[in-house]
């Protein structure tokens, strides 16, 4: 091959240079726009930290179901999600807040609704049982205790945070 064929003409050189510079500038302008557009998707789901749910005066030694809502931001979607907790004061007046979500397959547990098992949480789906402190009763389907909400008392009101596992039993 002759050396002449490999030479780049002035027109080709200008074409390559302008295409390269143009592409670089376009990428520089587009990147922030793309980043801005997809940024919410890259962020983890955000939930409200602590939610005021009840006056401490109204909490008794008998578990009561409290329904509340939390603000949740998932990408562009902001919503109010319903939550529930079984709340009571234990023997030392400490407030306990348990998740009503059964640890077997996620049905909702009720307090004291099974006549054969007084003062226990009962899951009607597969007859799961939990003690008052949320510990699963051995020999029934659930294999771990009910999750427990993080609690905080401020100015006479109970605030609940995330429900966290209590550890296996
Ligand atoms: S879902 Fe509760 S016992 Fe199965």
Summary, kept brief:
The chain is an alpha+beta fold. The protein contains one helix and ten strands; from the N terminus they run H-E-E-E-E-E-E-E-E-E-E. The chain is about 20% helix and about 35% strand.
CATH superfamily of the largest domain: Rieske [2Fe-2S] iron-sulphur domain
Q: Provide the CATH top-level class of the largest domain.
A: Mainly Beta
Rg calculated over all Cα atoms: 29 Å
Any idea what the CATH architecture of the largest domain is? Answer: 3-layer Sandwich
> What name does CATH use for the topology of the largest domain?
Rieske Iron-sulfur Protein
Query: Main sheet?
Result: 4 strands, antiparallel
Count all strands and give the number: 10
The percentage helix is 10-25%
Physical arrangement of strands within the biggest beta sheet: 1-3-4-5
Order of helices and strands: HEEEEEEEEEE
Mean pLDDT rating:
89
Q: Note poorly predicted spans.
A: none
Q: What's the end-to-end separation, in Å?
A: 81 Å
Number of helices: 1
Strand content range: 25-35%
Keywords: 2Fe-2S, Disulfide bond, Electron transport, Iron, Iron-sulfur, Membrane, Metal-binding, Oxidoreductase, Transmembrane, Transmembrane helix, Transport
Subunit structure: The main subunits of the menaquinol:cytochrome c complex are a Rieske-type iron-sulfur protein (QcrA), a cytochrome b (QcrB) and a cytochrome c (QcrC).
Organism: Litchfieldia salsa
Family: Belongs to the Rieske iron-sulfur protein family.
Describe the structure.
- With about 170 residues, the chain is an alpha+beta fold.
- The protein folds into two domains: about 5-40; about 45-165, Rieske Iron-sulfur Protein.
- It contains one helix and ten strands.
- The strands form three sheets. The chain has a four-stranded antiparallel sheet with strand order 1-3-4-5, with no helix packed on it. A three-stranded antiparallel sheet has the order 2-10-9, with no helix packed on it. Strands 6-7-8 form a three-stranded antiparallel sheet, with no helix packed on it.
- Strand 9 (about 150-155) and strand 10 (about 155-165) form a beta hairpin.
- The radius of gyration is 29 Å and the shape is elongated.
- The termini are far apart.
- Bound molecules: FE2/S2 (inorganic) cluster.
């Amino acid at each position: 091959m002759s050396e002449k064929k490999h030479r780049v003409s002035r027109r080709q050189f200008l074409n390559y240079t302008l295409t390269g510079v143009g592409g670089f500038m376009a990428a520089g302008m587009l990147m922030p726009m793309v980043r801005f557009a997809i940024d919410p998707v890259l962020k983890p789901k955000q939930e409200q930290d602590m939610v005021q749910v009840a006056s401490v005066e109204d909490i008794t030694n008998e578990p009561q179901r409290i329904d509340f809502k939390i603000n949740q931001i998932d990408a562009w979607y902001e919503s109010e999600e319903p939550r529930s907790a079984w709340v009571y004061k234990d023997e030392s007046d400490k407030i306990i807040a348990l998740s009503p979500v059964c640890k077997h397959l996620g049905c909702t547990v009720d307090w004291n609704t099974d006549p054969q098992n007084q003062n226990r949480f009962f899951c009607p789906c597969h007859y799961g049982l939990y003690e008052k402190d949320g510990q699963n009763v051995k020999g029934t389907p659930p294999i771990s205790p009910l999750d427990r909400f993080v609690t905080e008392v401020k100015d006479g009101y109970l605030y609940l945070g995330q429900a966290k596992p209590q550890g296996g039993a």
